[in-house]
Amino acid sequence: MSEKSVIDEAKQISLAIELITLGARLQVLQTETQISRRRLINLYKEIHGESPPKGMLPFSTDWYVTWLPNIHSSLFYNTYLYLRRNPARSRMQAVVNAYRLYLEQVPLQDDGKPVLTLTRAWMLIRFFESEMMQLSKCTRCAGKFVSHAYTLDQDFVCGICQPPSRAGKTRKAARARARTERSS
Ligand SMILES: [Zn+2]
Q1: What's the 123 CA to ligand 1 centre distance in angstroms?
Q2: Distance 133 CA to ligand 1 centre (A)
Q3: What is the 3-state secondary structure (H, E, C) of the chain?
Q4: Domain extent listing, the chain
Q5: How is the cofactor bound (predicted)?
Q6: 45 labeled binding residue
Q7: 161 among the known binding-site residues?
Q8: In a structure prediction context, what are the per-residue pLDDT tens digits for the chain, which is 184 residues long?
């Protein structure tokens, strides 16, 4: 094995470790590294102490345009684009760094998880790369938000400028429900 390939392998393992630590599913690792599935499963077990979850990745673009996911996805994607401006940074390093910055900015949900998981963030990048999504500029705040490709967006207003009436009530309702259940 040449020296270059050893370095390359070390880089790939280091990327895999970063991705696994951030919660990536096995399919993400299999797509983005040349490490064998068996070794990836072992790495995953070593880091999380359990086997990686089985099952399909989320394939739908619809999730990203619902209210709260849209705000989180747009925050992540704008950060990613900004980081990609540095040509020295690889695509996956930009994904990892943008995702770390995203985690620093947002509060976790009641279940301790972020709204946008790393796997969803990665899928979003892939959807943009296959031109299934676009950015639409909000006519009020001028922020750029994730939307389906070919959306007619001349009059687009984002979910922050115009939140749906139920926004913010879901969590309160859940807490109230939990209180009622505890007291009964
Ligand atoms: Zn707006």
Answers
A1: 24
A2: 18
A3: CCHHHHHHHHHHHHHHHHHHHCCCCHHHHHHHCCCCHHHHHHHHHHHHCCCCCCCCCCCCCHHHHCHHHHHHHHHHHHHHHHHHCCCCCCHHHHHHHHHHHHHHHCCCCCCCCCCCCHHHHHHHHHHHHCCCEEEEECCCCCCEEEEECCCCCCCCCCCCCCCCCCCCHHHHHHHHHHHHHHHC
A4: 1-55, 59-184
A5: Binds 1 zinc ion per subunit.
A6: no
A7: yes
A8: 556 789 999 999 999 999 999 999 999 999 999 999 999 999 999 999 999 998 888 779 999 999 999 999 999 999 999 999 999 999 999 999 999 999 999 988 888 899 999 999 999 999 999 999 999 999 999 999 999 999 999 999 999 999 988 766 555 555 555 555 555 4
